[in-house]
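pinned: reference chain
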Amino acid sequence: MEGTKKRIFRWGILGLGKIAHKFATDLQRLPNARLVAVASTDVQRARVFAEQYGCEQAFGSYEELIQRAGVDVVYVATAHTGHYSSTMDCLRSGIPVLCEKPFAMNGQQAAEMAQLARERGVFLMEALWTLFIPGMEAVLEQVRSGVLGRIHSVKADFGFYAAYKADWRLFDPKLGGGALLDVGIYPVLLAMLIFGPPLPSGIHTVGTRTRDGVDETCSFIFQYEGNGLAMGHATVAADTPVEAWIYGEKGQIHIQPRWHHPTTFTLQMHDGSDPEEFSFPYEGWGYHFEAAHVMDCLEAGKKESDRVPLEFSCTLSRTMDVMLAQMGVKYEGAC
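pinned: its structure tokens
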């Protein structure tokens, strides 16, 4: 007997940078997803993008897509500073949103986004794709199983070398530049997954800033109740291994590069047994896993994800508020 045919969801994308290309490519892997509209502040760029992915509609403004495209769900992939306004506009129009990380520029914006979504009864989720990668799901299952015993510490890094360009969003404070919001969010996320989601009892962050005032490198230590520690490092000034460790009283897990979308990890117990390696290869970039989850939520009539609840994203945002303040990083115009 054939299963019930899934509803086809019409997707729109706001912001057509590098990550939007990856997302559009992965949407093609989902039989119940159709990319029907894209928008950029440059209409020609939108038309080229639309043609590349067989998309029906291309717009030269985000407002046009929201008002005219007739989409079922929107992926917000704008620069960091555009996440809040684009998401709020979609929510006011009753359009479900998958918003790229970071969810917002600060905790206040994140709270307002969550509040509007709940008031309007419209689905909203932060695009924390790491949570949906099969290898990471398996890591978290090992931790939850108790095989490691009490977790006492976590360590993760994420760095890459980026040559300075004043007009590149990575270094532009007006676009939310800096290491923390771009890649440092991943080590922070791992700490929250293992020890959170409440705010750490202690947050200790140091960083170096670029000539434009955004963080070039940041390192942190989080303290948690029960003597848990999380250590993280992020930089746009050097290539780093991009690997992670989870240490427990009975054993440890090493998540091999690149740990934020892993295909392999190693479990090493402290009983003298041989290490065990787990492999979880997948095809594509990995963004189709989170997109599939969003469509499952919408199909079920959910207004919020149980995997990435809104309060989780708000806590993540508030945590980074403290970290940015400790490094002396301020973004003008972010309410």
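why pinned: Residues 53 and 187 are 33 Å apart (CA to CA). The chain has a mean pLDDT of 96.
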